Amino acid sequence: MTSRSDMQGGIGSARIRKLRATEAEIFRAARPKSEASFGKGIAGFFGGVPMHWMNDWPTPFPIIVDRARGATILDIDGIRLDDFCLGDTGSMFGHSPPPVARAIRRQADRGLTYMLPDEDTLVIGRLLSDRFGLPEWQIATTATDANRFALRVARAVTGRPKILVFNGCYHGSVDETMVRLVDGRPVNRPGLAGEFRDLTQTTEIVEFNDLPALERALAGGNVACVITEPVLTNSCMVLPEPGFHAALRRMTRDAGTLLLIDETHTISTGPGGYTRRHGLKPDLFVLGKPVAGGVPASVWGMSADVARRYRAYNRAKEPGYSGMGTTLSANPLQFAAMRATLEEVMTEANYARMERLATRLEAGLAAAIANAGLPWHVARVGARVEFICAPGPLRNGREAEAAHAPALEAAVHVALVNRGVLIAPFHNMMLISPATTARQVDRLVAAFGAVAGALAA
Ligand SMILES: Cc1ncc(COP(=O)(O)O)c(C=O)c1O
Question: Has this prediction a pTM greater than 0.90?
């Protein structure tokens, strides 16, 4: 007999192990060239890969890519996959969107980095302000950096030491956001390499959607900034409850605390992100990953009030360091790719198409779950869809962590790859790009239905 503790998502562990093993064999047998090339890991790289996340895929070895275009990836064994991972949002608008590829080719002959503005920048600042509603911007290279810089500004202008995060959040490798609630107590995030500080001294943490806890945490008057995604996307997806964002804004204002909205994933909502769609009014705004169509770039924006206070702060501070930055940030390749993305790729028309297909995917997955009689659910924010192997909706990071079913999800991911579909390895995220077709969505729904049906049988 199978006890409940032996189960994930309503499926017994023996059945999960069997599916994973069978699918791993199928994956291997189809990729002799990849397996031989990878060997015991790619030579010369620590852990056998150029970046450790590449080992986090549940396949027996990483897919070695030949090329990617639109919403399709081709591996070196000649296997074509419908790509719904899209570089974990870096390629949310498809691989090498044609306007971005053209802009990169044009810029390739005009210099790749010179630490000076060019003519594209005369346009980009205004594009960012018009689109996202904040008047003053800076360009960085990763969302992690943009968040770090914006949090520094928040501390500088408020003169306060702490930030506040929601349990289950992820904002990149920003040290002070690496805090979790374990049994209701704040602790450094488990598994954090090389950390020597007690991050709970710099960071308040409460559960998403818990307004009384938020109010209590802000009452001390020492929180410079609340940093949050509008939807928690980096655990199993948690949507805000009605009224949450309005209360968050009111409470932060009342407490003199700034509000940073990180739209790096929720830009799936629309051309102006969740912020514009839902009328949020952040003091600081961050967008990374897809903002330059896959070229590493990020942007962070400030409200007029924060910009004014930051200028005053800079005038008063001692000389020595003009601000936070990195040498290759705001380079002309980023400018060219970002301008093309903002002007020609992140359009209303593309988003309308993305949302239409995402709705089709959401409905198809929900029907497959119902057909299989599994206790799972589907969540969606714009073009980003996720199946969660637990009942929903989820209300906070604690519930999201409990809903995570790592062994089951890994088996499902490999089974989907063997049916021609790639989804994100860290969560069950599926993104619709402007290049994704209805046929690709239908193939994913059919593959998912087959796997869910086999698991439930
Ligand atoms: C919401 C959010 N913010 C920031 C980041 C960090 O992005 P990057 O790894 O490009 O620095 C991520 C990465 O997944 C993210 O999901």
Answer: yes
